[in-house]
Amino acid sequence: MVIESPVWRLTKDSREEAKQVTSVYQRTRAASCRIPASRTRGQRQDAEQYVEGHSIDVFCLTLSLMESNATTSGDTVRDIFGDEEIKVVLTIKLGEPLNDVRAVHKQPHSLSLRSTVGYAVLLAKVDAIVSAQEGISWPEKDMYRKPGTNTKQREFVKLSAESFDTQVVQAWRNPQRRKVALADFSLLLFAHAVKIHNSIRRATAARINEASVRIREHLAATDEPPLAPNSLALRYFATQHAREPDGTQPTVPEHATYRQLCSVDEARREMAQEQQAEQRRLDRRFRTVES
């Protein structure tokens, strides 16, 4: 049984070397399975030791390739990653940056970034992800990088357009990642968002009554046209105002619904006046007939 040594077939191209190492490893495994059962015990042991030795060589070469891959020549993102896309893992935390924040909004998000683009494209992608989340906002628009696996949050590094290329290179050069293949590398990013508190209140009967009083006082103080206590417009106005946060100044609605309700109230008022006038006329006639 003859197995070619992988040392003589390796090239300087790390990609080609990786393919050849994989091929040699597969042939080594296949050869270990083809040792004839007719061989003597000593021959089988010799063959198995030979295969095992080459398997160790392949394993060492694989680690060597990973080591050389982690120290790829070049000082820019494009030099290191070439045509490969950079994998980014984004975690949205709820709290102030550079603090011990434990609250995390949902699960981390995975995205990719081409090495030919920079900070602006990454910021746009992260902003789109955060903006799509309900109940949170991202006012600062700052991204932070986690330099190492065990790095504390106060040691996170803020990304910027000026330092983006350097930061990504440093993340790749980090000693904790030197045994990670380039294809398995991920840039760990964090965006610190804040929760949007719902300020809308329930329009209960008590709050509507309180709002009605405030609205009538406000209209009287600002010389606005008054609203009758049982008018539809006041009811609508008070219901809307009851949902607003406490302390909010009443603002007269300007949309069509409120104007239509005011018109309906006016028509009802005119109709009531006509009915009252007709009732008074009938009452006078009735008294005349009685006399």
Describe the structure.
Residues 269-291 are annotated as: Disordered. The structure is a single chain. The protein is built from eight helices and six strands. The model is unreliable at 1-13 and 65-71 (pLDDT under 50). Strands 1, 2, 3, 4, 5 and 6 form a six-stranded mixed sheet that branches. With 291 residues, it is α+β, with helices and mostly antiparallel strands. The longest helix has 35 residues, at 256-290.
Low confidence ranges: 1-13, 65-71
Strand residues, percent:
5-15%
Total discrete domains: 3
- Series of H and E elements: HHHEEHEEEHEHHH
| CATH second-level architecture of the largest domain | Roll
Number of helices: 8
First-last Cα distance: 139 Å
**CATH fourth-tier homologous superfamily of the largest domain:** Phosphatidylinositol 3-kinase Catalytic Subunit, Chain A, domain 1
Question: Radius of gyration over alpha carbons?
Answer: 39 Å
Based on DSSP secondary structure assignment, what is the total number of beta strands?
6
Give the overall pLDDT as a whole number. Answer: 79
Helix percent reads 40-55%
Spatial shape: rod-shaped
Structural class: alpha+beta
Q: What is the CATH class name of the largest domain?
A: Alpha Beta
| Main pleated sheet | 6 strands, mixed
Q: What's the CATH topology label of the largest domain? A: Ubiquitin-like (UB roll)
List keywords for this structure.
291 residues; alpha+beta; Ubiquitin-like (UB roll); 3 domains; six-stranded mixed β-sheet; 48% helix; 11% strand; rod-shaped; disordered N terminus
